[in-house]
Specification:
Rossmann fold, five-stranded mixed sheet, 603 residues, 20 helices, six-stranded parallel sheet, alpha/beta
């Protein structure tokens, strides 16, 4: 063993490699992305790693490998679990052969997600056992236990780190290379009674799952990860994940009236016997958890089942918040109210000043800004609906662009546009989608539109990468996560193959041509598409920046009011270009009515 200072996601990735993982599949999504990337970086060539086209595909690839005896890992964020849930729900009934860990990173806050879903609740719903680490060190150690548990019970297993666990750093004892496990898959063994799901088999396996989970509840009750720390009062606090780490830190600063603490790291199947023992001798407990009142409900169930007269407080009683993160100052507030601590006892806990407001914005030189602006100019004065999607381009909703009217989930913009068009046929309906999202979940929407003869315009914002999550490759980039070069899958060819007859490729920075293209294509009947092609501004070296000719500038500020590029600023009361941000895209120059913005002259 040796020590390394690791991010939580790095620790999880390194643990998977050390545990002998054979196949890793996932879809990028903050806060989970670095797990798969770490494994790819640590890969000596013996591990197959892929960014799958979406989470459903990743789940199915891993399932097939696990059927064949391989140890597998699937990575995603909580929203991706929705996409993967179809195969997962049946997979639990079928079971696995090689250990299979499903890493789902939850995002309390939410910091970078559409929802505040709690995978512990999904774990109970799907009947899949769940591990809930409280820090990077525990996450590293849990991976080995998760693979062993999966193989022991022939079931997939959830690993549920949250954002603060995924992205925090910690010094961890990690295994040396000589200590790595060498897991060799046995290969697929044909057995239709096991691998082919039929109603009768599902009924039989359901009964087995319920029996197994009852046994697992007892096993988890004895798991040392579920830590008990005795206090000096008749009050207790039950917590989990990063919330427990914060609770423990706060309580360590208090000298009098300290509650007993219980950390639940294996939330499903719920460790009833452990909780029953913890409640003995207590009058009341406070449950502090993220996000659902999952533990709280189960503690109440234990009290009812065994006739325990302990008052249980938490989200359901209004003593803790039903949404958002449990930040340290908020946890202190919960504990102080519950324990009756005096204010001076929290002297070691000083408030953190508010961070400056930094609204999210498209990068300077982002081609999406130019694409949105072209569509906006082309459709000015017409009744339109702009259905957005998940990606950097969601930021097109901000002023002054104001070009995203709806955003639901990945790929939904196509269906939304079709639905609006059915209700208001005279509305010009647009659906915006990125190149990565197109492959992940938009193709079926195009098929639906063509098949059902919709009238809409698809705008594909092709910046040649998966920009929002860190520039991962996708089927249109011609690269795989294994470092192999492959044929690029051409979006235009796919659209024409589906039956879209009008497909136009367009450079968004050619503003005049872009506006004319949008006007012409949008007026055609049926389903049509424009592919705006320009690389992400982060992917290439900036060209010569632009500058403002102050003698020509009439201070109309159209360049600022129209596009909102962070590279165009007000300096000393006048319009200027911030050369540290400008990458030379030239969009602002095309907007200026007097030609006052031009490329800077360099000697």
């Amino acid at each position: 063993m040796h020590k390394e200072f690791l991010m939580g996601n790095e620790a999880i990735g390194k643990a998977c490699v050390a545990a002998g993982v054979n196949v890793v599949a996932g879809y990028p999504g903050t806060p989970s992305t670095e797990v798969l990337e770490t494994i790819a970086k640590e890969n000596d060539g013996s591990i197959y790693v892929e960014w799958s086209v979406n989470e459903k595909a990743a789940m199915e690839v891993a399932s097939g490998a696990s059927y064949s005896g391989a140890r597998t890992l699937v990575t995603m964020k909580q929203v991706g679990l929705n996409v993967a849930s179809d195969p997962l729900m049946s997979l639990e009934y079928v079971g696995v052969e090689g250990g299979m860990v499903i890493l789902v990173a939850d995002d309390p806050g939410p910091i970078s997600s559409q929802t505040e879903q709690d995978t512990r609740t999904f774990s109970e719903y799907s009947k899949v056992p769940c591990f809930d680490p409280s820090d990077a060190k525990e996450a590293y150690e849990m991976i080995f236990e998760a693979f062993e548990l999966s193989e022991k019970y022939k079931t997939p297993v959830f690993m549920r780190p949250t954002t603060r666990v995924c992205h925090s750093y910690q010094s961890i004892d990690v295994k040396d290379y000589a200590e790595y496990e060498d897991h060799r898959p046995s290969g697929f063994v044909k057995d239709s009674n096991r691998w082919v799901i039929f109603p009768r088999l599902s009924y039989v396996n359901h009964a087995k799952i319920e029996e197994r989970n009852a046994s697992l509840s007892d096993e988890f009750s004895a798991n040392p990860r579920n830590t008990v720390i005795k206090g000096n009062s008749r009050k207790g606090v039950i917590s989990q994940g990063i919330s427990f780490a914060n609770v423990k830190d706060i309580v360590s600063e208090i000298e009098e009236s300290v509650p007993s603490l219980l950390k639940i790291s294996t939330p499903f199947p719920f460790p009833d016997k452990l909780v029953l023992g913890f409640l003995s001798g207590l009058d009341e407990v406070l449950v502090i958890e993220e996000l659902d009142p999952y533990i709280e409900r189960h503690v109440l169930e234990v009290c009812g089942k065994y006739g325990i007269n302990v008052k249980v407080k938490g989200k359901l009683t209004g003593n803790t918040s039903r949404s958002g993160e449990n930040l340290p100052d908020l946890i202190y507030k919960y504990l102080s109210g519950f324990m009756g601590w005096e204010e001076e006892e929290a002297s070691a806990l000083t408030g953190v000043p508010d961070l400056p407001v930094r609204p999210p914005v498209l990068c300077a030189g982002c081609p999406h800004r130019a694409s949105f602006y072209a569509v906006k100019l082309a459709m000015k004065g017409k009744e339109t609906v702009f259905a957005g999607d998940i990606g950097c381009y969601t930021l097109g909703n901000a002023q002054p662009l104001d070009m995203v009217d709806t955003c639901l989930c990945m790929g939904a913009g196509l269906g939304i546009a079709q639905g609006v068009g059915r209700v208001k046929p005279d509305t010009k309906c647009f659906a915006f989608v990125g190149d990565s999202t197109f492959f992940a979940s938009a193709i079926t929407g195009v098929v639906n539109a063509v098949y059902n003869q919709a009238d809409m315009t698809l705008i594909v914002l092709d910046n040649s990468t998966t920009a929002m999550t860190g520039h991962q490759p996708h089927p249109g980039t011609g690269r795989t996560m294994m470092g192999e070069f492959t044929d690029k899958i051409d979006i235009e060819s796919i659209l024409r193959g589906i039956g879209v007859e009008t497909v136009v490729r367009q450079n968004p920075f050619d503003l005049k041509s872009s506006v004319e293209t949008v006007r012409r294509v949008a007026d055609e009947p049926g389903v049509k598409a424009i592919i705006f092609e320009a690389p992400c501004a982060v992917l290439f070296k900036p060209e010569t920046p632009y500058e403002v000719d102050t003698d020509k500038c009439i201070d109309c500020r159209k360049c600022i009011r129209e596009i909102g590029c962070p590279g165009v600023v007000i300096k000393d009361g006048k319009v200027a270009v911030d050369e540290t941000l400008c990458n030379g895209c030239g969009l602002c120059s095309g907007i200026c009515p007097v030609g006052a913005i031009k490329k800077a002259v360099r000697e």
